[in-house]
Amino acid sequence: MPNSAPHFPDAALEWLVGDDGNNEVLTLSPAAGLPRKLARRGHHVWCIDKDPARLQQMGAAPGLATVAARAEALPFAPCQFDLVLAHQIIHELAPGIAFGELARVLRPNGWVGVSYLTRDDSVPWVRRLMALMRSIDPEAMSADLGTGVTKQLVASKYFPHHEQRDFRIWIPVTRERLVTMTSRHRALASLPDREREQVLRAVGAIYDGAAAGSELRLPYQLSCWRAYVDHSEMTTPIVIGDDALVIPL
């Protein structure tokens, strides 16, 4: 990864949270500094994390409150939030429990905003680098979007309607940085020194061929979903037939 983490695009954040700058927002982690960004935009933000130390690292900010909690057992009243924001975390939840909890704390017409940042493998030089690394380790440079659990969310009875958008992010990367990044990969750790140097020279050659004398940009893709809550599953009364309590002898 480059020296700094990819910047979360303003356009993506605006799409995830909507146009209203006075929302009640629950964020499921402090990832990417999103809770503070939202508070600065005028939202009232609650941030949860199971690790109190990570919450303390955020520091205090106007409009931002923190609580150590898990998404599977939210310590909030029903219909408290306009939206829930989940960046790089949905895959860590227990879907059967967490999705019902997220629906419970959302107001009618609210939604869960999900986002995942991954490397964009559609660029030719990145595909060549990926093929090189996978010739050593078939599992190298895998790009997991967390789509398995996200698909469960948008197919859930609590969230029957959704929208999806992708945003591309470009991060400058030098030849030296790319070679250093590759050298730290676990796939190279077990190689003899000579083979390892051959791989790193091949990485440099990929860079040189793609850069043509200029600096390359490493592409990322931010995939975003808005899953809208439907409370009917929680509010529809259970109808018991006349013979439901008849015990046959």
What this model shows, in words?
The protein is of the alpha/beta class and 249 residues long. Helices cover 35% and strands 25% of the residues. The chain contains ten helices and seven strands. It has helices spanning 10-17, 34-40, 52-58, 95-105, 124-134, 147-154, 175-183, 186-189, 193-211, 232-235, and strands at residues 24-27, 44-49, 64-68, 81-87, 106-119, 161-173, 216-228. Helix 4 (95-105) links the parallel strand 4 (81-87) and strand 5. Helix 5 (124-134) runs antiparallel to helix 9. The radius of gyration is 23 Å and the shape is elongated. The relative contact order is 0.16.
DSSP strand content: 15-25%
- Identify the quaternary structure here: single chain
Tell me the helix content.
Answer: 25-40%
Task: Please tally the β strands and state the result.
Answer: 7
Which sheet architecture does the biggest sheet show? 7 strands, mixed
Give the number of helices: 10
Residue ranges: pLDDT <50 for 5 or more in a row? none
Order of helices and strands: HEHEHEEHEHHEHHHEH
Overall geometry comes to elongated
Strand order of the largest sheet: 3-2-1-4-5-7-6
* CA-based gyration radius: 23 Å
